[in-house]
Amino acid sequence: MCQMRRAFCAAFLFAVLSLSFGYAAEPIPEIGPTGPVETIQEGFAFTEGPAWDGKGNLYFSDIPNARIHRLDPQGKVSTFTDKSGHSNGLMFNAAGELVACEMDGQVVAWNVDTGARRVLADKYNGARFNAPNDLVIDQQGGIYFTDPHYRAPEPLPQGMRSVYYIAPDGTVTRVVEELPAPNGILLSLDEKTLYVLPSEDTQMRAYAVQSPGKLGPERIFCRVKQAKPDGNGGSDGATLDELGNLYLTTALGVQVVSPDGELLGIIEVPQHPANVTFGGQDMKTLYVTARTGLYAIPMEVTGHRYGAE
User: Fold this and answer.
1) pLDDT at position 11
2) What is the pLDDT, as a whole number, of residue 10?
3) Which site in 36, 110, 172, 280 is 20 to 30 Å from 295, CA atoms measured?
4) CB 175 within 8 A of CB 214
5) Which of 176, 162, 166 is nearest to 212 (CA)?
6) For the chain, percent helix, then strand, then coil, each to nearest 5?
């Protein structure tokens, strides 16, 4: 009886807080949220690429302003660099470097202590990349990244919108060819599946990872829910939790999808979300970059961290 009463009180409190803040979606069982959305800061040009460093800091991109910002443990936002190459997706590697997809045509790694920047890859078959967008780092230290057309020169330097893999030795291979604006990219918990999320298609792709940088045939993993029945918009950025659920940013909010491709629920945020990651001391805070703002959402589930273990 006491347990039922506590559960009822928690649900009632969440409903009251959610209604007060304007977000009344029911929490997803065993996932969350456990409270309302917190606005960290607004007033940016276009936020993207949130990345948790494991030490209490969150980094994120402001693409049009060519900046990477840092949110410190005290909740203060500062500028890490104002020469980001129009960085988009960010992720920390095992060496503690901040790896960034620069839409100006390269993938780089930043030493966040010294501010030193080194180029990991800037071309394939002798031509620059279109505009690297988002990335995921595997346990070997290899980097999968998407290369659509956003902010790219015309005609496209690569002639197609693709997915690439940078091996630990620096070798670059094209692992997926033409897709309708490949954007977000994730690995499953066991890293046996690579997910690629097109922005111009509702169908999320999946590929068996046969070995690092070598993929099997394409299959459709799921179809994201649309605001309009005839819509063709897909997903942008994404992250993963400890249960293997995917968090896909869409026009309707953050769509939470099970490892089987089932839609579990949608987490609403104040603006159209672009990307998302877990952070916080217990990895139970969902950070969302959404247009001009950065938001934090308390969760029941723990998030997964790539590449940094």
Assistant:
1) 44
2) 42
3) 110
4) yes
5) 166
6) 5, 45, 50
